[in-house]
């Protein structure tokens, strides 16, 4: 009798279809783990993938690694959970809701429960109370805790102002290299400012908070939220758009500097092409 393609059993004396060491390409990030790890949670997506008998049905990249089209940065926490079924996150982890979505995709219901906030919907999802799940208690205790939480939020809004309790202070530096053409009689052409890329320097969590999906993290994808980076850049090239996002998040410009050099002159005209590097420093209290 023929076995189905997704059969997970192995006949006596038959070699398993997968190697002991598994190489994964998750959204462009490479992970190397053991076969026992990816099959440690029964009925999960990875368990389904690596329990099937026909290995040829799985997608691979150009180097033969098994490919999964998901968030490569957040997958590190998925893999950590599958090693020992425990959730350990950095302090002030800003990607909790996105990680919960990844846990749902990989069909890890226990991890989804650990990531689900245990507080009332009136409270902020990003509060520190979400970092650890409280024990189940009686309805009276839940009511008292909710009243205390609402009182603390009201006091904070009076002493600090609206929305300030959820904002962290810090610096963000915006830098770009631009070029412009200077012709005869100091006349510049219409494309005097040409911005190739806008770079972002600062704490990872602040940069993600301000720029969200418009932030390109491909040059530094595994940077923890509490660490600093100078390798992010934006997916757009309009400085004013970056300034608007910073202003909307409560940042104010506190310093700027710029340098310029004459790169070369055009062979057939007197126009000179100048290049410059400019930085703007923003701060939020």
From TrEMBL:
Subcellular location: Postsynaptic cell membrane; Presynaptic cell membrane
PANTHER family: POTASSIUM CHANNEL TETRAMERISATION DOMAIN CONTAINING 12B (PTHR14499:SF30), POTASSIUM CHANNEL TETRAMERIZATION DOMAIN-CONTAINING (PTHR14499)
A Pfam family the protein falls into: H1_KCTD8_12_16
CC annotations in GO: postsynaptic membrane; presynaptic membrane; receptor complex
Residue ranges constituting the BTB domain according to the UniProt record: 20-123
Keyword Cell membrane part of the UniProt annotation: yes
Family annotation (InterPro entries): BTB/POZ_dom, H1_KCTD8_12_16, SKP1/BTB/POZ_sf, T1-type_BTB
UniProt entry keywords in alphabetical sequence: Cell membrane, Cell projection, Membrane, Phosphoprotein, Postsynaptic cell membrane, Synapse
Protein name: BTB/POZ domain-containing protein KCTD12
Protein's job: Auxiliary subunit of GABA-B receptors that determine the pharmacology and kinetics of the receptor response. Increases agonist potency and markedly alter the G-protein signaling of the receptors by accelerating onset and promoting desensitization.
Alphabetical list of SUPFAM superfamilies matching this protein: POZ domain
GO biological process, one term: protein homooligomerization
Cross-referenced Gene3D superfamilies: Potassium Channel Kv1.1, Chain A
CDD domains: BTB_POZ_KCTD8-like, H1_KCTD12b
Species of provenance: Acipenser ruthenus
Keyword Phosphoprotein in record: yes
């Amino acid at each position: 009798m023929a076995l189905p393609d997704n059969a997970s059993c192995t006949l006596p004396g038959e070699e398993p279809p997968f190697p002991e060491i598994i190489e994964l390409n998750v959204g462009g990030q490479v992970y190397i783990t053991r076969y026992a790890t990816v099959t440690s949670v029964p009925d999960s997506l990875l368990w389904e993938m690596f329990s099937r008998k026909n290995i040829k049905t799985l997608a691979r990249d150009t180097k033969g690694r098994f490919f999964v089209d998901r968030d490569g940065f957040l997958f590190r926490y998925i893999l950590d959970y599958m090693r020992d079924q425990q959730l350990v996150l950095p302090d002030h982890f800003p990607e909790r809701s996105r990680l919960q979505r990844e846990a749902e995709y990989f069909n890890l219901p226990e991890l989804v429960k650990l990531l689900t906030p245990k507080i009332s919907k009136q409270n902020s999802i990003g509060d520190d109370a979400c970092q650890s799940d409280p024990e189940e208690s009686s309805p009276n205790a839940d009511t008292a805790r909710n009243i205390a939480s609402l009182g603390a939020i009201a006091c904070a809004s009076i002493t600090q102002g609206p929305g300030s309790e959820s904002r962290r202070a810090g610096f963000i530096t915006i830098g770009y290299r631009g070029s412009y053409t200077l012709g005869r009689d100091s006349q510049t052409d219409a494309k005097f400012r040409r911005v190739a890329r806008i770079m972002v320097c600062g704490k990872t969590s602040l940069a993600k908070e301000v720029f969200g999906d418009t932030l390109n993290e491909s040059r530094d994808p595994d940077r923890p939220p509490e660490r600093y980076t100078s390798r992010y850049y934006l997916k757009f090239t309009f400085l004013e758009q970056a300034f608007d996002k910073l202003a909307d998040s409560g940042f104010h410009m506190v310093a700027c500097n710029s340098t310029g050099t004459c790169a070369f002159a055009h062979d057939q005209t007197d126009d000179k092409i100048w290049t410059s590097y400019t930085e703007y420093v923003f701060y939020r209290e």
